[in-house]
Design goal:
Layout lengths: L4 E3 L4 H15 L7 E4 L6 H12 L5 H4 L2 E4 L2 H9 L16
Parallel strand pairs: 1-2, 2-3
């Protein structure tokens, strides 16, 4: 029922919720914007890990781009307002059924 999702700094429960909602977007269960508010670089290491996963072929760039990352709430909200969902295949290889 929400218009989108914003992740603020938090712990394990926050990570669980973030990755669940990204997975739902990846699976096509919703097409809502997902924001990560990286206040004072809190999520720098997580972002770096996700970029490493892309570089190693474990995460598609299109799936990484489901996450809107900003360190300023006004810019984040603006990007989320202008979010246009892309069709993202469920699998790493599109020919997989």
């Amino acid at each position: 029922m929400s218009d989108g999702f914003i992740t603020l700094p938090g712990g394990f429960g926050t990570f669980e919720e973030l990755f669940e909602i990204i997975t739902w977007a990846q699976l096509g269960l919703h097409q809502k914007p997902i924001g990560l508010l990286n206040i004072n670089g809190f999520y720098d290491d997580l972002i770096s890990m996700l970029e490493t996963m892309v570089a190693k072929g474990l995460l598609k760039m299109t799936n990484f781009e489901l996450l809107i990352i900003e360190d300023d709430i006004d810019r984040l909200l603006d990007k989320m307002r202008h979010f246009k969902p892309k069709k993202v295949p469920k699998w790493l290889k599109e020919d997989r059924t």
